[in-house]
Amino acid sequence: MKQSLGAKTLAYPTPVWLVGTYDREGKPNLMTAAWCGICCSQPPCVAVSLRKATYSYEAIVERRAFTVGMPGERLVRQTDYAGIASGRNLDKFAAVGLTPIGSELVDAPYAAEVPLVLECRLLHILEIGLHTQFVGEIVDVKADEAVIGDDGLPEIMRVKPFVYDTGHRGYYGIGAYLGRAFAVGKER
Questions:
Q1: Cα-Cα-Cα-Cα dihedral of 115, 27, 163, 48, to 10°?
Q2: What pTM does this model have?
Q3: In this predicted structure, what is the pLDDT of residue 188?
Q4: Domain with 124 in it: what CATH number?
């Protein structure tokens, strides 16, 4: 029998992303976000939900652009700190030892050390409640050569992204391969 837990954000897992923006003065900033995901395949889009109180909120609205960096497990400390500290008070890139790179396609930076980056142009803003959802069209994907497989695509076990457990507020690595999507279900 299932037990009712009430209305909570208990969806597992959620990706852990580093959202890159420029503030009004052009200072690069990073923010850790877990309320996010792919939301459309044509055009390719991601959605990131932020509270209005965040420093990145205003930057996305003003610049109409952001990047989504998918940090690998080796960057868990830097990524967590980017979600604790505010870019209003310090340079988060410098504080965590990451290198800002300006996108040539959108008005936003990303961290050079992050193995996979989505460059996004803001398409839609949806006021939901405590959070506002920003839908960004992916205009390019940048990947370190070291994470690209023989098929020319990033390999998840090379990127080593990590996920967030919303209930217990913990980070976890990616587990074992379970089967090919749209194929394993046909096996009986």
A1: -110
A2: 0.95
A3: 75
A4: 2.30.110.10
